[in-house]
Amino acid sequence: xxxxxxxxxxxxxxxxxxxxxxxxxxxxxxxxxxxxxxxxxxxxxxxxxxxxxxxxxxxxxxxxxxxxxxxxxxxxxxxxxxxxxxxxxxxxxxxxxxxxxxxxxx
Length: 106
Ligand SMILES: [Ca+2]
Ligand SMILES: [Ca+2]
Known about the structure:
It is built from one helix and four strands, in the order ββββα. By secondary structure, it is low in regular secondary structure. The structure holds calcium ion (2 copies).
């Protein structure tokens, strides 16, 4: 074992294990020694683990890999997609004209 925990090492969503158990999911908080890879969905799946199924991998949502939701990150365990940097202050919303009467002719 190493000398620090996975979050402090930024490896919460990484693994050394074939079964793809993330460092943050192990019973031991102390990080494993060895080359770490991004944890995939399971041992036979090459896609990065996406715990909440929103299409954004856990290691992207928790960008600094500390296992904690920080500013400019999205929650790996939440199913709602929240922009890391809301653009509403920079770009006023533009409303699309209503097109209720514009159905294409059959
Ligand atoms: Ca996700
Ligand atoms: Ca984080």
